[in-house]
Amino acid sequence: MRHQLKNFYRMKMLYLMEHQNSYQKIQRYRHKKCQSKKYLASLPTVSVVVPFHNEHWSTLLRTVYSVLNRSPEHLIKEIFLVDDASTKDFLKKKLDDYVEKNLKKVKIVRVKERSGLITARLAGAKLATADVLVFLDSHTEANVNWLPPLLDPIARNYRTVMCPFIDVVAHDTFEYRAQDEGARGAFDWEFFYKRLPILPKDLENMPEPFESPVMAGGLFAISRRFFWELGGYDPGLDIWGGEQYELSFKVWQCGGRMLDAPCSRVGHIYRKFAPFPNPNHGDFIGKNYRRVAEVWMDEYAEYLYQHRSHYRRIDPGDLTEQKELRKRLNCKPFRWFMTQVAFDLIGKYPPVEPEPFAKGTIRPESHPQLCVDARRGKQMDKLYLKSCMEDAQSEQQFIFTWHKDIRSKSRNICWDLPDSTPLKPVVLYSCHLGGGNQLWRYRPDTKLLKHGDGAKCLDWNRETRDLYINWCDGSATQRWTVDSVDQKMMAQWDKVMDRVTGPTNDY
Ligand SMILES: [Mn+2]
């Protein structure tokens, strides 16, 4: 018993130290200038809306307590925990009692039937009475001074929608870490969420908020007035899926704007798997996408259907109200959004992929019986040369894509150079769609395979047959043949992608 107690206190000490450390770490994550930034003295009040379904006790309460502890007290008017028909016992009376006793600002809202997070968010928003709605997932941690950076721009212009930077809370250790230095939200033509680089002018301006075409999902702040002017979410959207696009398009097309605030950070646990099934509502995601596309995307909807042709056959339901809303608010065409806000999206996620520059096997000119082989390697595994053959183990077909990377024909993995010092190996890494250390160029005339800026070339070791990078000297081991080279595409090499430099003004 004594031993256990001692252990308990030691663990508690460790926990506190850890906590202290992570607090300092958390401080460090933010841009240095965030600490000296000034905000309006008078900021709007907030209703926080947190939908949940069978969320864990600790993560749900961490969400609530972090909001209460890390916000100016007078700004938090109420927190709605919207229970989307959870089945876990402790989320019923036990939660009611706990909230009643300890959390005066928290109100629990019960949705009778499992109806998904869109409906749950709407249910909370309908009851909200503060100036600004802040939506959070039920497994988040609001970070140091997260709120004023979201509220200040909304106070100045109520049609501004603000998103925090989303940090990563590890699902297995709860370690808190930064995701990255931020990016602009976007999508591809299968409606997967994607990201675009921060613009140079915004980088210079850090840590000021910058415009982002679409939000990542469920973490954002919007004035209650603007949210309802936009009709909230389309109530015809079912369960989840597409709602972040719908709201983002509406915000931009109907007179608002959306910004990411680098000084506002919220940690989010990315689920490894959802511990609950989706309700059985058929292809609700397809239906949601169809509604968003039909109402907001005009002629660009066609690109989505070209990638997912079965969407054409899904009945989107009644769209009259949504189309009337768009008309009533005099919203701009999707083309405006694509050329003024997401102007670099098409360049990075083209509706139709251009032909590759080259493809096939890649062989040393002096040893044509050898092929570069990725052999089902994992991230960071080395590439090397092997006898050319087609069998279950070999992976010798590559594509020089128009992103100027070299990708396995059969999967989304690319030649990468984590360290470009001479003699460092070439490894496999998830393709990041152009640029950086995955940039390669093949010269059919010299047969050199150049990396990055072109000073270093692919080379190989005759004994180990490993591939590595070295200064280009035109030696025999630096000369390569590729099965099929598209001369026409090669001629365009320098033009492709570089043409996208800034907003066009053709509207
Ligand atoms: Mn989440």
UniProtKB/TrEMBL annotation:
GO terms for cellular component: Golgi membrane. Residues 359-483 form the Ricin B lectin domain. Its cofactor is Mn(2+). GO terms for biological process: protein O-linked glycosylation. Pathway: Protein modification; protein glycosylation. Keywords: Disulfide bond, Glycoprotein, Glycosyltransferase, Golgi apparatus, Lectin, Manganese, Membrane, Signal-anchor, Transferase, Transmembrane, Transmembrane helix. It is found in: Golgi apparatus membrane. It is a single-pass type II membrane protein. Belongs to the glycosyltransferase 2 family. GalNAc-T subfamily. This is Polypeptide N-acetylgalactosaminyltransferase. The lineage of its organism: Eukaryota, Metazoa, Ecdysozoa, Arthropoda, Hexapoda.
